[in-house]
Amino acid sequence: MEVRLIDAASEIGAGTRGTSMGMAALRVAAWKLGSELFGHAEESILRDENDVLYEDDTQHNAHHIDGLIRFESDLAYEVYKYLRTGIFPIVVGGDHSIAIGSVSGTKMAFPDKRLGVVWVDAHADLHTPWTTPSGNVHGMPLALLMHIDQKGRNNPQVYTMDIWDRLRKIGSNGPKLLPGDLVFIALRDYEAEERAVIEEFGIKVITVAELREKGAEAIVAETLAYLKECDRIHVSFDVDSLDPSISVGTGTPVPDGLFANEASTLLQGFCKDPRTATLDVVEINPALGDKNDMAEATLGILEPLFPILRSR
Asked: What CA–CA distance (Å, rounded) separates 181 from 116?
């Protein structure tokens, strides 16, 4: 199977600047470490809309959300295009709001297939403009993709919710996945509103402690068995799932995370499953780390995936 890297350098959804340099940071790490990662796959570069960050922001419950429409639509089509020609897309962010486009594109490519999502992340990303404490859209993609409209502390503007609705309809009008087809791994930092969604829908959560007890390979098997009814799987890997002892080169580091070898075992296991169709790698921020250490750690996690995917 051919692999394509997609440079999705949008940081509109983040509260801290720098994630748009994620792919560039990986490339620098590859040069430094003598990696041939970028020789294994062609690279597609999307036009970002980050210039909106210089403009006045009037959407306080979803900052600059209007800047995401074209970007997420373009990303969805790029993912769709590669999937329909048998190519495996690895989408490198950028912040985690890019998952709106990557998951929508996966669903667009397989409209009649049941889609499972594995969310390897310290955060739940289940907020809406009604519940968000920050207004940062990278904390909202899963709620948007599942069409969860939980009301809460905020009273978002009509314009904000119009853009929210347009984003939900990228690729198809309905939800891209069901809550029962979502698995969180390494989740450990989320608000009461997100906890309420997890409890209401019974969303599966696998903690770092559980992973340490059972082992990463067992967690892969458990997750894939849980998603046995799903025809396709999207894996979304946020580097803040990693322990800050590895690097603080991400906008929202959280203690007690995964070690690099654990993350590597997880992603290798998921990529071996023929149902796994797409992968995100998000929130690398070289502006915050030390000597590009997050990109170097991530490079080591990604490299073993290429021979696995090429042999499928």
From this structure: 5
Q: Is this prediction's pTM over 0.90?
A: yes
Domains of the chain by start residue, with CATH:
2-310 (3.40.800.10)
Angle between helices 68-84 and 158-168 (to 10 degrees): 0
Walk along the chain (312 residues) and give the pLDDT tens digit of each residue.
Answer: 999 999 999 999 999 999 999 999 999 999 999 999 898 888 999 999 999 999 999 999 999 999 999 999 999 999 999 999 999 999 999 999 999 999 999 999 999 999 999 999 999 999 999 999 999 999 999 999 999 987 788 999 999 999 999 999 999 999 999 999 999 999 999 999 999 999 999 999 999 999 999 999 999 999 999 999 999 999 999 999 999 999 889 999 999 999 999 999 999 999 999 999 999 999 999 999 889 999 999 999 999 999 999 999
